[in-house]
Automatic annotation (TrEMBL):
GO terms for biological process: glycine betaine transport; response to osmotic stress. This is Glycine/betaine ABC transporter ATP-binding protein. It comes from Kibdelosporangium phytohabitans. GO terms for molecular function: ATP binding; ATP hydrolysis activity. The keyword Nucleotide-binding applies. It comes from the Bacteria. Coiled coil: none annotated. The keyword Transport applies.
Amino acid sequence: MHGTQVHDTQQPVISVRNLWKVFGPKAARVPGSAELGALSRRELLDRTGCTAAVRDIDFDVAAGEVFVVMGLSGSGKSTLVRCLTRLIEPTAGEVVFEGEDILTAGPKRLRDLRRNKFSMVFQHFGLLPHRTVVDNVSYGLEIRGVSKAERTKRAGEVIELVGLDGYGGSYPDQLSGGMQQRVGLARALAGDPDVLLFDEPFSALDPLIRRDMQSEVIRLHHEVGKTMVFVTHDLSEALKLGDRILIMRDGALVQIGTGDELVAAPADDYVRDFVRDVPRSHVLTLKWIMRPKRDDDPLDGPELGPDVVVREATRSVLAAEKPVKVVKDGELLGIVGDEEILSVIAGGSDS
Ligand SMILES: Nc1ncnc2c1ncn2[C@@H]1O[C@H](COP(=O)(O)OP(=O)(O)OP(=O)(O)O)[C@@H](O)[C@H]1O
């Protein structure tokens, strides 16, 4: 596992420990049993009639982080994010949100948390067809008892934020799919939640619109800085959006890491398969390709940081007459010359 905390001095916003969700008869016996817990998905189903959709998962999400959950269809991604707010009731484990154990929250507290702290954006936008954009966006505020004047003002702000200025009076069926999902985003932002949860929000959109919406999420993240948990089965989406990516297979966690960690050091063949077609020079950073300094290296070449992406360093490394020094806080970490760069670009550096 290659976890990196983004803001490791702060308490995580969400902390998940030993989380299980088992569907089926007498599900609760599975997490406690070393024997049942060790069975494959198929064996467990045959023996007990149960499916372990989430198996003993641990992770932390840091404040302001975009945390992506990725895996093939059926790997347990949706179940995992739904367990975070108990839209699906976990079978065992711990979910701590801002220091509070969610699994012991009573119904009223849970309702408060869902209304005020979390917002979810789904693949199917779930807009109310007979309500205008403004009324869809402000619906959650209405339920909270916010006055009409105040919620209309807030709706106007978030509608502008997602780029739908001028469409407040439209009805959902007058908007394209991409615009409807913008309404979904605005609705999620309206209540100013601490965490936005996205479950494959753009899967139903065509590729160009999808790309726009990904950029939109990145822009919104810069503007509002919210913590985000984002489910996708699409690696390029995961790499584009995620500060860190959790990869699931058959309910279990396979690897957590930054995009460059997954590409440079996949934990197993499942992850290796996922990242196989990623252009390595777009994702790897110099720290993954540098070599140790040799005695005959001239040390008066240019300097670059270890986190510079190879693609961005290529031109300066190839143009320099001396090898490039990879330096952080004044310390020489390694050397990158033409050879190291070219082996990545040629796709040969499968280290
Ligand atoms: N209510 C349920 N009852 C029984 N099994 C379920 C239930 N919900 C999900 N599962 C099973 O749990 C496993 C994980 O499902 P989940 O929907 O979380 O996966 P996913 O990775 O989100 O897949 P997809 O990308 O297709 O939505 C699957 O095997 C699924 O069949």
